[in-house]
Amino acid sequence: MTYLLGIIISICGNILISISLNIQKYAHVRQSQRDSKPYYTSAVWWCGVALMGIGELGNFAAYGFAPASLIAPLGSVSVIASAVISVIFLKETVRVSDVVGGSLAITGTYVLVTFAPHTITHITAHLIQYYIVSWYFVLYLSLEVLLFCILLYVYKKRNVKHIVVVMLLVALLASLTVISVKAVSGMITETIKGQLQFIYPIFYVMLVIMIASCAFQIKFLNQAMKMFDATEVVPINFVFFTASAIVAGIVFYQEFEGLALLNIFMFLFGCLLSFLGVFLIARNRPKIKQQDPDFIALDKIPSRSHTDKVQPEANTQTYGSLAAKLMCNSASRTRHNS
């Protein structure tokens, strides 16, 4: 029943992230209205940052207890929670699409949790080394690197700034992030249980991969948020990230091995319902009226990725990374400011 612990930790972490980002949004609204001190001098804002750190830590820990293909889709919980909290806390209007989308996302989450692979694999350094040299992962990684290079060439050299191109770059990086996060989290979990894993070089290799892939994800997410509405980026990023996490779990960790066809079909059906729900919730979010023209409202998505930083100024390099994870109540204003 260890996977249940991972599910609970992930759900709690996503809810905390939703609460934290709505607190930060509230702090920005209050600061813009009072026009007083910078946002980072607000105790309320720092409270939100602290909660987000705890939530991200929970998501990281969850990968050590449950399959990656199960934890990643649970990012929809954060979207649902953010929609509910924004209505209660920030007095936003409830739309029909919010109700329908929330219902679909909740149903999809229940279905995928029910039919997801529940086999627990103890992640050790020796197991990671075995998976890395497996022929199917080598083939998968080669194809991923080739596709990434092609997309990067099209994006940089051919100047093709299509949202699908940018989000595919993010998704390919997210695949490596999920693999490395689960490896690091799993080895830390085994160390806590008494089997020391820090003495193996593979632990530090996966740690470097995790940090590097996360950093480049943030970079491309920022660029996507500067070029496109967050209402486009949010659902596409959630779908692509979740899909890449599931594929990574299947190929690297062999999480679907021995799973019945009915379970696989129902799991994918649950993911589809969650995707549709997130699209409906994030679609055409209303803007918040603000007095400060440079104010950026912060909002939510998943999964994915577990490393985004708080930077609401449009002139900073990490601008838009939080908005890329949230439901984006000020999508058009974000694009205008960039």
TrEMBL record:
Main location: membrane
Gene3D superfamilies, sorted: 1.10.3730.20
InterPro entries referenced in this protein's UniProt entry, alphabetically: EmrE-like (IPR037185), Mg_trans_NIPA (IPR008521)
CC per GO annotation: membrane
Membrane topology: Multi-pass membrane protein
Pfam families in the cross-refs: Mg_trans_NIPA
Compartments in which it is found: Membrane
An example Gene Ontology molecular-function term: magnesium ion transmembrane transporter activity
TM segment ranges: 6-23, 43-65, 71-90, 99-120, 132-155, 162-181, 201-221, 233-253, 259-282
Key words, A-Z: Membrane, Transmembrane, Transmembrane helix
Family label: Belongs to the NIPA family.
Identification of the protein by name: NIPA like domain containing 2
Lineage start: Eukaryota, Metazoa, Chordata, Craniata, Vertebrata
